[in-house]
Every structure is written in structure tokens, then in C-alpha cells.
Amino acid sequence: MDKKTIIASSAYERTVHWFLAIPCLLLVLTGLILAFRSFEPMAIIFGGYKSVMIVHRVCGLIFTGALLLTIQLWYKDAGYLDGSDIEWLMKAGGYLWKADIPEPYKYNAGQKLFFLTVAIYGAIMVITGFLLFFKGSLNPIFMSWVTGFHALGVMIIGGFSMVHIYLGTIGTEGSLHVMTHGKVSEAWAKTHMPGYYKEKIEGKKD
Amino acid sequence: MATTYMMQKKEMVKLVDLSKCTGCRGCQVACKNWNQQPAAQTENVGSFQNPQDLQHNTWTLIRFHEGTDANGDMYWDFRKDGCFHCTDAACVRVCPSGALSYGEMGVVRLNQELCIGCQYCAIACPFDIPKYDKVTNKTYKCTLCEDRITNDMLPACVKACPTGCLSFGPKEDMIAAGEQRVIALKEMGYESASLYGKEYVDGTHVMYVLNKPEKEYAELTVKPKVPVAVKLWRGVAKPLGLLSIGAVVGASLLHYFINGPKAPKEEEGGE
User: Fold this and answer.
1) CATH topology for the A5-205 domain
2) For residue A33, which residues of chain B lie inside 8 Å, CB to CB?
3) Which terminal residue of chain A, N or C, has fewer Cβ atoms less than 10 Å from its own Cβ?
4) Does the distance separating the beta carbons of B248 and A152 come in below 8 Å?
5) Which member of A32, A34, A191 has the closest CB to residue B264?
């Protein structure tokens, strides 16, 4: 089974992914600490609130850059939803109950939806985040809404990320390889990236 | 008189009777004096108000407001601005580091040693009171002279006031005195006189006797309340954020235990 492998991601794609993912997780964690008093014990891990603030800001800058590269990299393959994607979503991708699901090309509708969420709400987080740098000099009422929308990101991006992490690790066998060394078994590619798999195999045969 | 009340650590209120303020700024100087804050160099902008706004080292300020009313008569108002020490304080709600908390006798306390300079309090405050200092990277505001009042002394501003505009005492007494004064003002012809602060943010610990409608005072928040965005942020975003992350992690694990991982088709033995 494991003799034949297919390249599912380039080194550049994997690098961009982790430059986005690691700051994102740190941002969620430090953001929760900064937003909510009950997370105080976790602030100690970072060495106090000042360090938490610095980590949050530095990660925010890295996240901003990585988000731009992410959008540029994946919007063609994942930045839209078509009819078959809607059907996929209606059947929850066959993950929750047995269903015949439409075959995706490289990314299924769930992955596309995750990409769109991260791209759109990530941009909102970047904009509101940069506004928060200048909170002292802007209208307080406006800023309280900015902060509110920024805080909502924890739910939207944080929550969806947990699904992504589950399905990317233990939820589907072999998926983690796509983001570690990039080589997947043919069987994996056939199951999860049918369109891409056919293209590769046919390309080889020709 | 007030000594025994202070010993009991009762909820106290500073009553500011604006109908008696002459704009002498004795309170402003006394505040600086007690808190050992230097005056900043300022510019003349054509008003007696000085400085132009509360500062990290100016915790109380007389706001001067002049103009002409509907009858063409000139008016000149003075309003002592500063922290209102809310019972339901938006700043305490949003402070992540615990620097802001409820102190004794109704004080909203700001401990600079815990302050991280995030300025959430400045965003949330319905009165726009906390002021940030870049040099120390901390926020400052009126303490209601917690150091004095817990030691049987009047707040410095009240001590200095020569006209009886400022008084300090137990909450019920101050409300009663304020309401009495409002009645007296109405009898004198100030029909829109009111007591400001009793009903707002569950009761402020600094209240005004106003002799004009709220909206006619410069930069005074009309019907102040904890901003809706702050309530959403603390009351909705927090529980939902944690719930969504927790629920998704829980559901994922449950999915794993019930269905197991999704294996590639051929390994399942299919096809």
C-alpha cells in the first residue's frame, strides 16, 4: 500500500501553512488571556501579561504576512463554492452519517469553507487588530465595536480551527503527511483528492 | 460627623452640586497637590478651561462652557469632571489583568502595578475617563482618594471646595441631600434640575446636581450606560468563544470514538 506515493503539497505550501498556523494558535491562546480575566494562570506561562501582549503583537504581524501568502496560494483551488460543494455541505461530507458525496478535485467543500472563513475573518482580525494598536487616539465607541468584532474571531477562527486540526490529524488517517513531508499514499490521494489524483496518474501515463 | 460612617466602610458618594460651582478650580489644585502631580505646560485656546482634557496626571478638571441660550442671554457653566466610580463599571468588566477592581466604600480602584497599558478601560468607559501615559505605559484616573477616605479624611477636592459645591458622605444621605437640592432648585425656577448618577450604571459614586438638562452640559454623557459592545464582548463573545472551541473538541473526540478515523478507500477493503 505504502510503496507508491504522490506529492500532495510543495515545500513552499507547507512553509506558508505553518507560518500561518503556529502564530494563529498562539494568537488564539494569548488573545484569550488578554481578553478574559479567568485565564490569568496561563499568563504566567508566558511570563506575565506584558510578554503575552508582545507575543500577541509579534504573532499578529507574522499572521498578517502569512495570511496574504495563504490567500494568494489557495484562492484558486479553495476560494469558491459551487453546486457540488453545497451538496457536500448538506450531507456534512459523509462524516456524520453515511451518504454518497460528490467527488472533489483537491479540496472538499469543508476545506474550502475553512479557507474562506480564515481568509475573510482573518482579514477582519488583521484590520481590527491593527486598529487596536491606535486605540488611544480613536473614538471609544467605535473602538468598543472593533474590540467586540476582534473578540468574536476566537469563536469563528478558533472553533473552526479545532475541526481542521481534528480532521487533519487523527480524524482522517494519513492527512497529517500532507503538511509534514507532503507525500501521501496513492490510496489516500484517491480518497481525498480524487480529481488531483486522476490528473497526476493520467499525467504520468501519457 | 462623617468619621463614624467611614469607620464602618459604608458605601460613600461624592455629591457635586453644579449649581454652586464658581469655577475656582480649588478642587483641581487640591487633587494635584495631594497626588503630587506636576502641572503640564499648556496653550491658551481661548477658554478658561485648563488643561483641555483630563490627563494621566490630571484626574479632575473643571470644564468651562460658555454660550448664549434661547433668550439670547449669556451663560457660563462649570462642571467638575472625573471618574464617576460606577457600581457596574465597564472598565472593571473589561480589564484583563485585574488592575481595575472594586475597592472599599464604592471606589473603582486602579492598581498601576498590575496595569499592562492595554487601554481596554479607556475604550469601555462611558464617561471617557481613564487616561493613558506613554512613558509609564499605564493608565490613570481619580482614586476617590481611597487612601484618604479609608483614613477618616475627606477627598482632597471636597476638602478644598470653598462654596459647598462638593460634599461627601454615605450614599443614602447624599442622595437625600441631592434630591432636596433639586426640589429647592425647581422652586427657584430651574425646572429641569435633576440628580445625575443615581440610576445610571447601577448608581455612580460621584453624583451631580444639575440645574439644566443633561445634554446642555459640555461633554457630559447623556444617560450613561455600559456600552452594548462591551456587554456583547464580555457576555456573548466569551462564553460562545469558549463553548465553540470546547464543543468542537468534544464533538471531534466523540466522532473519533464512535466512527473511528476515515481511512483511505483501498485500506478499507473497498473497490
Assistant:
1) Fumarate Reductase Cytochrome B subunit (1.20.950)
2) 96
3) C
4) no
5) A191
Tell me the pLDDT tens digit for each residue of B143-193: 999 999 999 999 999 999 999 999 999 999 999 999 999 999 999 999 999
Residue among B171, B107, B172 at smallest CA distance from B142: B107
| Chain B interface includes A22 (CB < 8 A) | no
- C-alpha cell at position B95: 480589564
Calpha distance A8→B26 (Å, rounded): 75
- Judge whether A47 is closer than 8 Å to chain B, CB to CB: no
Rounded Cα distance between B17 and B162, Å, is: 12
Dihedral-angle region of residue B269 (phi above 0 means left; psi in -120 to 50 means alpha; beta otherwise): left
What is the ipTM, given to two decimal places?
Answer: 0.73
Cα dihedral value B71, B76, B81, B86, nearest 10: -30
Grid look-up 458525496 returns A101
Extents of the domains making up chain B: 2-216, 228-268
- Residues B2-216, CATH architecture: 2-Layer Sandwich (3.30)
CA angle B30, B36, B42 (to 5 degrees): 80
From chain A, pick out residues whose CB is under 8 angstroms from the CB of B98: 37, 40
Across B190-213, b (16+ Cβ under 10 Å) vs e yields: beebbbbbbebbebbbbbbbbbbe
Nearest Cα residue to A18 out of A170, A128, A156, A181 = A181
Give SS3 for B34: helix
> β-pairing, B206-210 with B12-17?
parallel
- The 10s digit of each residue's pLDDT in A150-173 is 988 888 998 899 999 998 888 888
Residues of chain B with Cβ-Cβ distance to A44 below 8 Å are none
